[in-house]
Design goal:
It is built from eleven helices and twelve strands. It has 436 residues and is α+β, with helices and mostly antiparallel strands. It is extended.
């Protein structure tokens, strides 16, 4: 579908063509008079700063300035005209672009009108049909004593002492060692020497060959270990190679757990007994289970709404989301995907990226349509719950959040809570026994 939009204030004429996936093609025309006006302005700007022999700065005739700087003037004029023309076309057409445009097919002469094509992705305009009446199964999860015991043991390990031992290193021991790779003639490559490296055996923090070579070694022992590197090793220079390392063991220590008694409970968090500590851990685990179940139900509801309201999303937003996923060093990929596998990984992640974009637009639309956005009163109430109002007034706490950029994050969080509450109220959530 093509429509003509005349942008009278800026004398820009635009034809808008709808392309798939919320992409729009704008054919923009800037009339001759505007083209000449913008060019004259750039000539004057160049003339003010031009330095020509025989003339004081800024006093050279424009005719001579054009002769000397004609190419630069035309470049700046064209760049300005395209920018202004595109901005005017977008403003008058009420489009909402989500990314900078792709400009092509530019036709312009310094004394003529400008024509160009701009392709741009816009925000989807979605209408939601079915948003309720879904049935979600929520598996029942219970905290058992084994769960509590595992947390207690983890805390004991975290607070354990490491005692030196005079025996070969075994799984669970912490070993300190120096290592240096050897060249083909068996000479150490000193520039790659690593000293006082500490690892806990059995946690797979080293390559398998290296860990196997260290296991069973005692303090003061010097040995050589042959290590094979995988084909997808992060260092492409080592992929598929085998290297020999000379290793000297500096220290071997074993973990000594603290006794599980009331004294231990008091050191953890001021609990009077192991029983009180266990009760606290159980309550925390139950809260974690409730939070996890709530998140799972929320996402299951989103999946149902997405399935009931199919719509395309701009490709540029999917690509942007994929790029952020792959560059996030805190994420599962840690930004270390080998170059040759980038395309394959992006293909695997693409469905998740498309879901994330659809999720964003659906929740945003629900918040707008149902009036669920958190207002200032809701913000103030939430802030009051999170602070000690005896020490800090709500207005001051709000100003601090605003200065740090956290206020809008809080508003978004509260809005999403309201949206998901609304979705849950309109569907059936059934507790079921988990499958064996």
């Amino acid at each position: 579908m093509t429509e003509a939009v005349k942008t009278d204030p800026l004398s820009v004429e635009t034809e808008i063509e709808e392309l798939p996936r919320w992409r729009r093609r704008l054919r923009v025309r800037v009339p001759v008079e505007d083209s000449r006006r913008v060019r004259r302005r750039h000539v004057r700007e160049f003339a003010r700063s031009a330095r020509l022999k025989g003339f004081r700065p800024g006093k050279a005739p424009e005719r001579l300035v054009e002769q000397k700087y004609g190419g630069e003037i035309e470049q700046e004029t064209l760049k300005d005209l395209v920018h202004q023309g595109y901005e005017a076309a977008v403003r008058q057409s009420t489009l909402e672009p989500v990314a900078p445009p792709s400009i092509h097919d530019v036709r312009w002469t310094p004394d003529g009108e400008l024509e160009f094509v701009a392709e741009v992705d816009i925000h989807p305009e979605i209408e939601l049909g079915r948003t309720g009446g879904f049935r979600i199964e929520r598996p029942r999860r219970r905290v058992v004593e084994d769960d509590v015991d595992r947390v207690v043991e983890r805390i004991r390990k975290e607070r354990a002492d490491w005692r030196p031992v005079d025996r070969p290193a075994a799984a669970g021991d912490r070993i300190a060692f120096d290592s240096v790779p050897l060249d083909e003639s068996g000479e150490p490559i000193e520039t790659e020497r690593v000293e006082n490296h500490r690892v806990e055996l059995g946690r797979e923090s080293l390559l398998p060959d290296f860990e196997a070579g260290l296991t069973g070694r005692s303090k003061g022992e010097i040995t050589e270990i042959e290590v094979g590197f995988t084909e997808d090793h992060p260092n492409e220079m080592l992929r598929g190679r085998t290297r020999r390392f000379r290793v000297s063991v500096d220290d071997v220590r074993e973990r000594v757990l603290p006794p599980l008694d009331d004294d231990f409970a008091r050191t953890v968090g001021g609990f009077e007994s192991v029983s009180e500590l266990g009760g606290h851990i159980r309550r925390n685990l139950e809260e974690e289970i409730a939070d996890q179940s709530r998140r799972e139900v929320n996402e299951a509801l989103v999946d149902q709404v997405i399935e009931a309201n199919r719509f395309e999303v701009p490709e540029v937003l999917v690509d942007r989301y994929l790029s952020s996923m792959m560059a996030d060093r805190q994420g599962p990929l840690e930004g270390r995907v080998p170059e040759e596998r980038l395309g394959q990984v992006r293909d695997v992640l693409r469905p998740g990226a498309e879901r994330a974009v659809r999720r964003y637009y659906i929740l945003k639309r629900l918040a707008e349509d149902e009036g669920l956005e958190a207002d200032d009163a809701a913000l103030d109430a939430a802030i009051a719950e999170r602070i000690d109002t005896g020490k800090l007034a709500v207005p001051e706490a709000r100003r601090r959040l605003e200065r740090s950029g956290e206020l809008e994050d809080l508003r978004h969080h509260l809005t999403m809570e309201r949206v998901f509450d609304w979705l849950r109220e309109r569907s059936t959530i059934e507790d079921v026994e988990p499958e064996e």
